[in-house]
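Archive entry. Fields below.
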Amino acid sequence: MNASRQKILQRLRAAQPLAAQAFAAAQDAALFADYPASSAQRAEHFAAKFVSLKGEFYRAQNFMEAAAQLKELLQPLAQNPQNGAFCARHAHGLLDQIFQADSWLQQVCVCESHEITNIDFAKFEAGITAADFLVARTGSIILQAQSAGGRRLSVLPPLHIVVAQREQLVNSLEDAFAALSAQNEKFDASYLAVITGPSRTSDIEKTLVLGAHGPKRLAIILIG
Amino acid sequence: MTERQHFLHLSAQKAADETHRSKIGKAIGIYEQTVARTKTSQFKDWEQARALAAAIKNEALARLPDLLEQFEAKFIAAGGKVFWAETAAEAVKYILQIAQQRRARKVVKSKSITTEEIQLNENLERAGLEVWESDLGELIVQLAGEKPYHIVTPAMHKSKAEIAQLFQEKLQAPPTDSAEELTMIARRHLRQAYISSDIGITGGNFLIADAGAVVVTENEGNARLTMSCPAMHIALVGIEKILPRLSDLSLFLPLLATSGTGQQITCYNSIVRGPRQPHESDGPQEMHVILLDNGRAELYGRPHFREALRCIRCGACLNACPVYRTIGGHSYRATYQGPIGAVLTPHYNGFAQYQHLSSASSLCGACSTVCPVHIDLHHLLLENRHQAAVAGAIFFERAAMRMYAWMMSRPGRLQHARGILRFLQSMGMIFPPARRIAPRLSKKSFREMWQAHER
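PREDICTED_STRUCTURE:
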């Protein structure tokens, strides 16, 4: 503990207290105009928002379809199939099941690990992860270090593909945060990201450009 | 030159610069349209949302010391380190110390105006470290050898052509007139920085007490890369950035994005709770949070001004301010520009040098109207002026006001004063300010005309 700690805290505590006014916390449903009308519409609501933010949205009925969709997304990126793996994925249960279905996918994808150096990691064309929540109101994907295979996989490669299931949809950010806070053991990751669309910037004359530093493309395959 | 003279000189120059005016007018025009659209499409009632946000921030300030301790305990339990810095110098010293201990040579930074407050780049470079700014706007001002022009859009004052020219000179890039191509040049340029830096330094938009987390808001992904690839992550955060609960983010993330850029929510919001955990596959092995005071605790002790600490640095008051739009961000010569800067800077850097910023306002109140956490900015500016007047720093102004009051309290006195002024004007002894034309005082005063009319 450093000396300034005491000084700062003492100064703050010595200040004349101002009474905090009482206020009523408001639910997201009461605050936001674009709150999903009903739980049944969550997937459609999410898809519409996600697409309007330039995300690529795909639907799959089952793992087989998801594997086929994944293959379709990855094949154009395979410049030289003899080169072997050109993407990385998270060793996540859901992804394991999908990858089982296809030997080509297994061939071109390695599982992420801390042994892969930053330099090698930066060569991957795509990173494939699971997610924790999909937020319908904002079209956001919430993932944590565990569900996403650490931090680099979802941000370093130019294409980030998320595979998620319908049950992971929630109405609004408050539901996701409430679930994380309530089940504290679920929220023990060192890193959590709320991702809303592919990387972007408007720093040059307010012109929107995708893929500033993070993924240029963000795709989601929603199962169910 | 004193700060005041610098300010007068620079602002007079910028106010007359029509190219500057059109660049800023265009950028802020687009911003205003987007913000107006998002306010109504996202919020049922913007006024309700910002009243709630102000109340939550007030709660956080009322409980500030306790919440900071709560954050600290949580963060340390997750394996992070917390350092409290009373001054900018202390923060710099701590960062240099850990950089030297780890034999670091290269630092990658994501945009953080708080690091400008402690002049981190200059200090790191002086110590022999290589510093890479990774936000596109920050990279542009770094290459140009300038300071950020705006707390949210640091390169708002640069046209595409100027940026292309800069990239040609500094990065040996080919000429281009496409914003897309310029962005890709920056992307390629900075990849190396992420994957080879020893330390990643970020700021923090919020600290979450109950989760022990630092929240970093951005669009480009540079902050995410900065806290993913290097072996060490340092976050420098002002002590006032605290929020009590993780759930408060469901309002504050959309609120900040709406006021900051007109987005419903920014592209990436990272919630970081410490270094890489044993079961995680990557991330920094070490994480430090520096809680920066640097004048905040003292401001906290001034009850009239405490509300200024609600600020979430969205930049809305800068964009709304007719003075900022006219004189631009650099004229302030301060880390924080615009109305919030004019409120804070005299407190943080001294009234003696920076009091003039509080007077650089027409008190129109546009800033207070747009502030998403309801800071009564223009009244705080007035309060600053009051403080300075009480401190007696401005003898001349007080004497002038007394004379004015004396003159205005009797019609006869005003009449005489007019006569004297008219005489001086006819002798050419009253000079109007440069670029202004002073109308000639009329032969007859309104009073005389009225009396003639009555007759």
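CURATOR_NOTE: Chain B is about 55% helix and 10% strand.
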